[in-house]
Amino acid sequence: MSTNLNRRNFLKAAGTTAGFMIAAGYSPFSYAQNEKVRVGCIGTGGQGTFHIRDGLTGADQIVITAVCDVFFPHQSMAVKYAQLSNAGITLTEGQKLTDEEKQRASQAVKPNAYYDYHEMLAKEELDAVVIATPLNTHFPIAMDCLAAGKYVFCEKTLTRTLEDGRALIEKCHELNRWVQVGHQRRYNPKYNMAMGLVFDEGRLGRINHITAQWHRNHYWRRVIPGDYQLNDEEKKYITDLEHHLNWRVYEESSNGLFTELATHQTDIANWFMRAVPKRVHTFAGLDYWRDGRDTDDNILLTFEYEQNPGDPGFIPIDQRSKLQKLNLINRGYKVRFVYSSILANAKRGASELIQGDKGTIELSEEKCWMFGEDYSSVSEENLSAEELANKTGSGGTRNPTSEELKAGVELLGDVTLKTPDVYQFRAFADCIKKGTVPRSNQMVGFTTALTAIYAVQSKKEGKVVEIDPAVYTFDFETPSFHEYDSWDEETKANI
Asked: By residue range, what is the domain housing residue 307?
């Protein structure tokens, strides 16, 4: 059998046949060394334009050949930014192009524009699509793109319902395709470095608590152009411009803070815990904004993870043998993750605090701090009463001095980073070319989506809700949702 199929002929020959063996690492396409992945962008509003202007511009293995949006102002702006992206130019607000950049842009590929993504899929020779549309449209668009033989990058949250999430996972398995989900923190070198500190070096010891927040002092709405008249094509898709542009604040198209912000941090918690929570309890309300929205403007979520038995936990040395005899040492334990978000105060913004029995890591897209708290090297049984009193406070915990705290704080990742959006799209192209599975694959997206779905259920029922493992269990092998790049000098040198 000839293996001389190029990627264009492969698509024509494959038809509806299952794609390739992901597990075996076989690529369906044969790429020349400098050949680029042809991408179409569906949804070119705020997030879609950000991807085109910042992320895809830095992913030099990608060329944007088509854009699709049902709102013409977004569509026309996307064409401009995509052509600049294809020329390797990032145009910031207020910036003017140089003569040299204008020349480069004029010679770059200008993408075709569409209102209907079905037409785009039928007419364009695409390898992959980027979906940045309202949450309630992710599932049908992704399913159509998979059926058309395309690789898919889909913004988080992956799906709005458990049924849709499971159906998407099954479709990926059926077609031997994958979906990469926009959990960009998984591609941030600082987050991967922190994962290496936790799992390769054991710097945190046992993780025992996680807190996170994403606060904004903003009403989270877009201004509606009062004098804008929809054209005939737009009228096919848009009946209400207010609901179309401000879809995040309406339950019919979004779950608001649960899906648009919280899933960033619940993904991080799942990643560091290497697990899915067992239960969730939600407090939420629409308390501040009186502008017609029906999604909550503040939420407080508590997730509970159950760790496997076998960890000794916090046990005084002189009590260990006794506890072993009582079989208490092998009990499992719980880790709680507390998340809050409010649209009325932006203090601390977005960040995560991961606490272990040996240290704490504080993370954001801009920084990674390590707080060392490893005092286990000093055996309590060898301390005098006076030494023991100085070692512990009234609550029995260590009271480090200011000098010790200063010495124990280590700023990590002191490097100049590209936007994580660039890293995730470089990985997207790389996985397509190599036939490997993305780190933020469809299982990552689904296990994160279900945390939001169950959190919404908890709010509506007013009680703790159990998360059934059967929901994310399949009768076929699914991609891992734990992968990360260990932080080493080679990784650091390549960022």
From this structure: 189-412
